[in-house]
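Q: what sequence does this backbone want?
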């Protein structure tokens, strides 16, 4: 330790326990130091009160998460070679687990890849990134050229990198909210912001400048395929459709009819465009409506037009403080869907909020089923696609819960 160049931050026993369990975050209230001069964004060594080295990470006094570890190896030197190894490791993992789907996948998933606060989604030849931590902001000028080079070595020639750094979380890190093309030699900075991708045989137009998040939700890729496996010959109600993805998969799989619903007029227009793009207008429609109101109206009218309902709502909670309200919202839509389905009908339901834990979500489903006086026969219990890996010891990386049921 004596010859290391980094200031030392000392952590209390609570933080040390979390670090030993594999979590990379250290909260400000759990720290003392650093023991020398520093600037926010610097690397620091983290040690226990007894002097045991726990790792090295980025320091930021602006954030509740004061230190984000990036290494637990004393031999690491945080030079370009270190970051190249990290990038190569992340890309090789995706090539292994995603196979032919690699060209449309999440390449970096923050803490799960030891890039705390960094997201990188690949849409064929467009890379869309989001930087949510000061540490990653300080090294992104190193990371972006490495991503270009390492992707090229794996057969992907990038046309552009676009940053979507608009989240309010950046302000908590002391960073500005902004977006734009990354100016690198050989990359374009004047594109229209649209790219066509294919997922599960469905073509989509991705608006990576103005679309939600990075432009498209890749985490449900295989859940959409699983949902579609039940759709043949069924009448499907696809709720909170966004881009129409679940409904499109079901229509392509042979559903008798699909109605996709979203409260957003833009989402409905996007879904209609995707329906036309895939030649599915004969069996699929997009409707603008509030899903809560629609399900209530259908229940009042005893409308049992559908024998398959898909619930893919946005995150009803993004903090522990609002979990109770979110629980009620999830229960309301699931209860109404269960009541509307005939015996033998099918339900796909999910939550994309980390704070709605698997235990809470399953408890809600049990309560909804009891109140609806139905029994759920579980077909599948799924999580996010493997390009969004769940890192054990870091519960924040496990966020998507997805269930397929038959109502009996």
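A:
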């Amino acid at each position: 330790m004596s010859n290391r160049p980094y200031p030392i931050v000392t952590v209390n026993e609570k933080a040390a326990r979390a670090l030993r369990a594999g979590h990379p975050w250290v909260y400000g209230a759990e720290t003392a130091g650093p023991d020398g001069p520093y600037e926010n964004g610097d690397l620091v060594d983290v040690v226990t009160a007894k002097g045991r080295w726990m790792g090295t990470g980025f320091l930021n006094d602006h954030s509740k998460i004061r230190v984000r570890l990036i290494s637990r190896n004393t031999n690491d030197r945080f030079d370009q070679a270190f970051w190249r190894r990290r990038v190569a490791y992340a890309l090789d993992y995706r090539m292994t687990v995603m196979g032919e789907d690699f060209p449309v996948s999440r390449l970096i998933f923050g803490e799960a890849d030891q890039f705390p606060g960094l997201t990188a989604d690949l849409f064929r030849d467009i890379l869309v990134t989001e930087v949510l931590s000061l540490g990653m902001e300080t090294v992104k000028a190193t990371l972006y050229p490495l991503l270009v080079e390492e992707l090229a070595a794996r057969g992907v020639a990038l046309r552009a990198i676009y940053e979507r750094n608009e989240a309010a979380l950046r302000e908590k890190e002391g960073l500005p909210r902004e977006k734009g093309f990354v100016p690198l030699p050989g990359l374009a900075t004047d594109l229209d912001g649209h790219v066509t991708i294919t997922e599960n045989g469905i073509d989509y137009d991705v608006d990576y400048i103005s679309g939600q998040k990075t432009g498209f939700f890749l985490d449900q890729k295989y859940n959409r395929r699983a949902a579609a496996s039940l759709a043949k010959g069924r009448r499907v109600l696809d709720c909170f459709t966004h881009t129409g993805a679940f409904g499109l998969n079901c229509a392509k799989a042979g559903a008798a009819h699909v109605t996709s619903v979203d409260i957003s007029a833009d989402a409905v227009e996007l879904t209609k465009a995707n329906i036309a793009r895939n030649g599915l207008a004969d069996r699929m429609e997009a409707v603008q409506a509030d899903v809560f109101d629609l399900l209530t109206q259908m229940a009042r009218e005893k409308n049992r037009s559908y024998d398959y309902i898909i619930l893919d709502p946005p995150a009803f909670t993004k903090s522990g403080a609002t979990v109770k309200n979110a629980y009620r919202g999830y229960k309301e839509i699931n209860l109404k869907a269960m009541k509307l389905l005939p015996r033998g009908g099918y339900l796909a339901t999910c939550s994309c909020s980390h704070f709605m834990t698997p235990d809470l979500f399953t408890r809600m489903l049990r309560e909804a089923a009891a109140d609806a006086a139905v029994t759920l026969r579980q077909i599948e219990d799924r999580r996010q696609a493997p390009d969004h890996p769940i890192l054990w010891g870091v519960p924040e990386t496990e966020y998507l819960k997805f269930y397929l049921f038959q109502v009996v």
